[in-house]
């Protein structure tokens, strides 16, 4: 209950002071008039009383208008003091959908009406008005049941609501009783909280764990099987032992590669928001990776065609080890998916404009940007790795950088992968504020391009120049 604090001015009696003032003026008037006009005392008293009465009337009149003004001010102040924040606009502006529901009869579904729907609720439920029949806005039985529990049992209730529409969304729905309206209707509020993203993250985590354990279990099962065989019937068979041990070595290497990739991915993700500070010579990095890959290429008769700028001409801000990993993964894939005797081209270009760096390279190929920089840098260095392997069908392109994603039916030759290579590449390039595209023609081959920001410089190649060079 609110009380108005006493006004210090008004707390003395509001009628006493005009009477006292009029009395004082009357006495002074009697004395003044008697002295000035030398009237007899009775006439002087009468004249003084008349002056005093006139003064009192004036004072009272002044007091009346002051009172009215005072009351007016008090009314304004009171209305300001009790003024509510603009609740309707406040609730309307909230991002969570909110609905106020009223109802009279539990058995009469048509008595349930929403009597307020904020902008987010109107958007979610695709309703135009802020008021209407509840079943016209929501048909989900779980939500209607939660509303009933709040309305008629006075209970808090919650459930999950799968919002329809082009992009299906999952919303946790809370129903809370609001008591009775003045006209006796029951009221409840319904609040929706969008959990789509949380659930997606959770699903990704569960899938990731399932995939990781599956990938580890396969070589582990094979190792266990061979250990059993070696201890059993192959115990005394020297040639079988040799064969099995070499298979076991491959499986153990596969497991350790998987564990390395998993660790590496989690390390990269941890530091992904911190841009690297060192300066890296990309041409030197590419040379190092190609030197290391040369023996495998030679063994499989793969020709490595290399186009590099002079050392020092393509410097980028980066983490050398991570960039080596990017180059290695792309070159490894190109060789892995190339037939024996195939050709892998590796080209590094410096000082490219953003358009030139991401320009199409293989005319007529299915093409997808797997990652684009948020804010384009003035100049880029672009690494292109092309092979003449089986290519990747268009529908698989968007999923290539998902963890453990593999294009079905593709043979990766002797070196099976972890399915994490391109995910690692994407996260490293993202940390470097770079971009990544893939172009592929089934039956002809694939080109991956990774472009990384360089320091600004005077001469920047345009996209048109790059396309001209390619075609
Ligand atoms: P993996 O270790 O299996 O190679 P990646 O993440 O590196 O995993 O690649 C994901 C999938 O993309 C591969 O399994 C393969 O199906 C496809 N892929 C990657 N690079 C190429 C390429 N150069 N040519 C054809 N397919 C490729």
How would you describe the overall organization of this protein?
The protein is 47% helix and 20% strand. The longest helix is centred in the first third of the chain and has 41 residues, at 41-81. The protein has helices at residues 16-37, 41-81, 87-93, 119-125, 134-137, 141-152, 196-231, 238-270, 282-299, 320-336, 354-357, 421-431, 463-470, and strands at 98-103, 113-117, 132-133, 157-163, 169-180, 186-194, 279-281, 303-307, 315-317, 343-352, 366-371, 379-387, 435-441, 445-454. The chain has a 6-stranded antiparallel sheet with strand order 3-2-1-6-5-4, with helices on both faces. It has 4 domains: 8-79; 88-194, PAS domain (Beta-Lactamase, 2-Layer Sandwich), CATH 3.30.450; 196-273, Helix Hairpins (Orthogonal Bundle); 275-470, 2-Layer Sandwich (Heat Shock Protein 90), CATH 3.30.565. It is an alpha+beta fold and 471 residues long. Mean pLDDT is 83; it is low at 1-16 and 466-471. The chain is built from 13 helices and 14 strands. Residues 329, 333-334, 337, 387, 389-390, 392, 400, 405-407, 410, 412, 417-423, 446 line the site of adenosine-5'-diphosphate. Adenosine-5'-diphosphate binds next to helix 10 and helix 12.
């Amino acid at each position: 209950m609110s009380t108005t604090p006493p006004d210090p001015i008004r707390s003395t009696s509001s009628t006493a002071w005009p009477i006292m003032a009029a009395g004082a003026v009357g006495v002074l008037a009697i004395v003044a008039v008697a002295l000035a006009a030398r009237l007899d005392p009775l006439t002087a008293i009468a004249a003084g009383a008349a002056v005093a009465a006139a003064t009192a009337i004036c004072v009272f009149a002044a007091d009346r208008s002051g009172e009215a003004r005072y009351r007016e001010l008090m009314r304004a102040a009171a209305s300001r003091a009790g003024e509510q924040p603009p609740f309707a606009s406040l609730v309307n502006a909230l991002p969570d959908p909110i609905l106020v529901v009223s109802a009279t009869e539990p058995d009469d579904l048509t008595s349930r009406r929403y009597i307020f729907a904020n902008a987010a609720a109107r958007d979610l439920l695709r309703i135009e008005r802020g008021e209407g029949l509840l079943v016209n806005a929501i048909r989900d039985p779980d939500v209607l049941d939660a509303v009933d529990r709040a309305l008629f049992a006075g209970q808090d209730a919650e459930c999950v609501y799968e919002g329809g529409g082009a992009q299906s969304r999952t919303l946790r729905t809370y129903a809370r009783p609001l008591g009775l309206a003045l006209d006796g209707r029951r009221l409840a509020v319904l609040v929706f909280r969008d959990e789509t993203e949380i659930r997606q993250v959770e699903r990704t985590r569960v899938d990731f764990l399932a995939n990781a354990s599956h990938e580890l279990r396969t070589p582990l099962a094979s190792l266990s099987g061979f250990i059993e065989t070696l201890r059993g019937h192959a115990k005394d068979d020297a040639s079988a032992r040799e064969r099995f041990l070499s298979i076991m070595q491959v499986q153990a290497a596969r497991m350790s590669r998987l564990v390395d990739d998993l660790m590496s991915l989690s390390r990269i993700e941890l530091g992904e928001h911190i841009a690297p500070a060192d300066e890296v010579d990309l041409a030197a990095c590419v040379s190092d990776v190609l030197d290391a890959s040369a023996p495998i290429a030679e063994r499989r008769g793969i020709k490595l065609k290399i186009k590099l700028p002079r050392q020092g001409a393509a410097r980028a801000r980066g983490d050398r080890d991570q960039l080596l990993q990017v180059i290695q993964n792309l070159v490894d894939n190109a060789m892995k998916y190339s037939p024996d005797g195939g050709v892998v081209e590796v080209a590094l270009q410096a000082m490219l404009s953003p358009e030139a760096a991401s320009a199409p390279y293989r005319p007529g190929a299915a093409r997808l940007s797997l990652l684009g920089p948020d804010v384009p840098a003035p100049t880029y260095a672009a690494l292109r790795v092309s092979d003449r392997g089986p290519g990747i069908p268009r529908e698989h392109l968007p999923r290539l950088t998902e963890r453990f994603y593999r294009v079905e039916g593709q043979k990766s030759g002797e070196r099976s992968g972890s399915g994490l290579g391109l995910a690692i590449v994407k996260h490293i390039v993202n940390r470097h504020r770079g971009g990544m595209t893939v172009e592929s023609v089934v039956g002809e081959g694939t080109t991956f391009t990774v472009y990384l920001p360089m320091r600004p410089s005077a001469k920047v190649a345009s996209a048109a120049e790059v396309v001209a060079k390619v075609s």
